[in-house]
Amino acid sequence: MFRMKIWFNCLLCAFLLTSAYATKAASLEVTLLGTGTPKPDIHRFGPSTVIEANGHYFLFDAGRGASIRLKQANIPIQQINHIFLTHLHSDHISGFSDLWSTSWIWQRQQPLHVYGPKGTNAFAHHSYQAHSQDIHFRTKNTGLSESASQLQSKEINDGEVVFEKDGIRIIAFLVDHKVVAPAFGYRLEYGNRVVVISGDTTYSENLIKYAQNADVLIHEIAAAMPAALKNNIKLQKILRYHTTPEQAARIFRKTRPRLAVYNHVLLFGIKEDEVMQKTGEHYDGKVMMGQDLMKIKVGEKISISK
Ligand SMILES: [Zn+2]
Ligand SMILES: [Zn+2]
C-alpha cells in the first residue's frame, strides 16, 4: 500500500512537472501579413494576420495579397485550414478567393473552415458558386480532392469559443465598427500566452474586457491632421468608426498588454512618427507600429523580426 502511494506521488509529480513545463514553454508566433486598408499600397497589403500555435496556423482576415505575403513569410499556404473573418468589409476579404483556391491547389488536405459574422455563410456559398467551374476542371483533370475544395462556414456570436483543440482556444468578441455590425475581434489563448486582434473598431469596452492579460494586442489605428479633418464630413465619418491614437492609448491603459502593435494603418496627412508620439503622450507602455511581414514571437520574452 505504502509503495503504491509513493508510486502515485511520483506519477503526480511527473504530471505536474510536465504541465508546468508545457505552460512555461508555450509560445506563439504572430506574423503580420498585411497592415493596410482598402488603399492599394505596395508596403501595406490588405489586413491579414497569421498566428502559429502548437503547429497549427490560424489566419485572421484575408486582405489583398495575403497569399503572396504567406509565401514571403515562408508559411506553407496548404497548412491554412482555419480562417477567422473580423467582418465582411472588402479590404478584409479581397484576398480570400486566392487564398482558398491556391491552398487547395497546393494540396490542402481538408475543407477550409471559415468563421465570421452574419453574412459569412452567404459569402462562402457564393464564393464556392463563383469558383464551381474551376473546381470542376481541376478535380476532373488533375485529381484534386473535391472534398478538400469545400468551404465549411460558421457564423459566430459574442463570447463564443469558436475553436478549441490541442490546448488552443480562440474566442470571438463583438467590437464597435458602428454601422458595420456585427464586427468581431478575436482572442487566441495557448498555454499562458494570449494574443488579441481588434479587427476594425472604434473605442470598445467589450474589446477591453476580452483583451485583459493579453501578451500582445494588435489594434487598428486611424488618424488625420486637424486641417485634413476640418470641413471634411466624409473623413470625419470614417474616423468615427475607427480608433484614434488617443482612444488607442486609453484602451492600452485599461488592458496593459506586454506589447501593443498597430495595424490597419489608416492615416490622412499625418506621419507614423506623429501617431506614435500622440500615443506616447497618453500611454507609457510598449507600442509598435506594425509593418508587413513583421514576426512577433511571444514567449517568456517577446521578440520581433522581419
Ligand atoms: Zn478595414
Ligand atoms: Zn471595416
Question: Could you characterize the architecture of this molecule?
Answer:
With 306 residues, the chain is of the alpha/beta class. Helix content is 34%, strand content 29%. It has helices at 2-25, 66-72, 90-93, 96-105, 120-130, 132-142, 205-210, 226-229, 233-240, 245-255, 272-280, and strands at residues 28-34, 48-53, 56-60, 80-84, 112-116, 151-155, 161-165, 168-175, 183-190, 193-197, 216-224, 259-268, 287-289, 295-298, 302-305. Helix 7 (205-210) links the parallel strand 10 (193-197) and strand 11 (216-224). It starts with a helix and ends with a strand. The structure holds zinc ion (ZN) (2 copies). Residues 87, 89, 177, 180, 200 line the site of one zinc ion (ZN). One zinc ion binds at residues 87, 89, 177, 180, 200.
Structure summarized in a few sentences:
With 306 residues, the protein is α/β, with parallel strands linked by helices.
Descriptive terms for the model:
15 strands; single chain; 7-stranded mixed beta sheet; Metallo-beta-lactamase, Chain A; binds zinc ion; 306 residues; alpha/beta
